[in-house]
Design brief:
By secondary structure, this protein is mostly beta strands. Helix content is 4%, strand content 54%. It has an eight-stranded antiparallel barrel with strand order 1-4-5-7-8-9-10-11.
Length: 188
Amino acid sequence: MTTPEVAGYRSGFWSIDQEHSSVLFTARHMAVGKVHGRFRRFVGKVFTGETVEQSAVRAIIDATSLDTGSVKRDRSLASSEFLESETYPTMEFRSSAVHAHDTDFLVDGELAMHGHTKPVRLKLTFNGIIEDPYSGVTRAGFSAHTTIRRREFGLSFDARLPGGGQLVSDQITITLDIEATLDAPEPG
């Protein structure tokens, strides 16, 4: 399989630009609707290797920065019924491999959340690399998504609806839109 072309590709170390990035999640609510949320604080490093397949990523998400647009729902999700963010204030993803897949990539790694670490596979689109004409900073863009089962991470809340279905789905979709800036080379 040939590796997809990435506009302006170069190797280097990159820092995730939180201001221009998002970590989003979606869950089914009452089997008919969807609830969307985001984590407002996260940090991470990306290494782009000589080839995309030699690349790696590590990101840490502040679980206490959860925001669904509803203070009541956010409190519930932060409680012991769900994330238990007072006890488990961070989530971490570490990649283990990157593979070409059709016109995109698959990123394998481990997600540590709520005291559990499980393998996760992200489908990744590498959006390219560009020189920012306003700041002179080199920027890279990535979009990725995956679906996890919250029960695999010990999030076992399971309120059933009359007639079947769950109040909150077991499957959670995670969507990432990441912009990273090339780290300045070390002096000397």
